[in-house]
Amino acid sequence: MLRTQAVCFLLGIAGGCMSPHARTAPAAISPGGTYSVAICRTACDPRNPDPMVRGYIMLEDTSFPLTAISDSARGYLRASTPYMLASDTADIPVDANDSTVLNACFFLVRAPDAPTHAGIEPAAITKWRRVTPDTIRITLFLSPDAGYVARFVVDRGRMSGVGRSWMGREGDAFPPDFIYGRRIGPPDRARCVREIELAAAREHERVRAAIREAQQHRATPPQRVTPR
């Protein structure tokens, strides 16, 4: 026993025989929660924010499938945000069984003509992941030729970081946005789903209005022009 302790003492000087607890990195703090967020052109002042985009981001600690949300919300997401669901932040691409697993959602209100892609998609489900032990990455908009990715740190209920819009080959032409948020409660997926269902209802009504207008246009006979 004494010989083993002596060997470990000597090896310990060179890094050997170390306690397994000494080699284990501290576990990352869970970011799970619902956050009230502001996205600003310049650094957001939490005491007097002047955001281009404001809303909520919800981060969950475990993944969930699309089948966990309502049919109307799922149908809207598959039709309106397919690239979000199949982005590189998702575990697997969308398939016919809606088996994509995600762990975040958001709903955002964007100021008119705001110079950012954040908020173009008002409500959606996405996925967050860690890019470093302290930094989280999340996609808030994605199309075939444009997108918006945010990177931020969550510390003691506060969120701070940057986001960047990109478009085609002009990705570097967009300056970074600044993101500030605070945790207001536990993850509330139902809140996001309600907003997605409202977006689905607005889109349904927009399509119906377009169809009615087209039908009225076809039903209206062309006016005859009387020659002078």
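Second entry:
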Amino acid sequence: MELCTFCGIEREHVVYGPGVCICELCVAEVSSAADHPVQGDGVCSFCLKAERHSCFAFRRRKIIVASAAGDVQICSSCLPIIQNVDDRNRKAASRS
């Protein structure tokens, strides 16, 4: 069991980043909140990259969600990867 960095609750299935992790419940909550990006500049806790503004949409990176404490943030580039890993974790857990 690991402690989810977003909600602070011990969970069995989490997605890991460098020094952070997020549980499947927080992934679902973050996914629904992605339509309302966080204001201000920041650094993603999973890829450790700062926001990037560009006139080209594919080059933009926005911090789209932050934990309640604001210490953990996820960018628009990492969220789809986190969702994919979470889906794979749930499928693997359901097979066993």
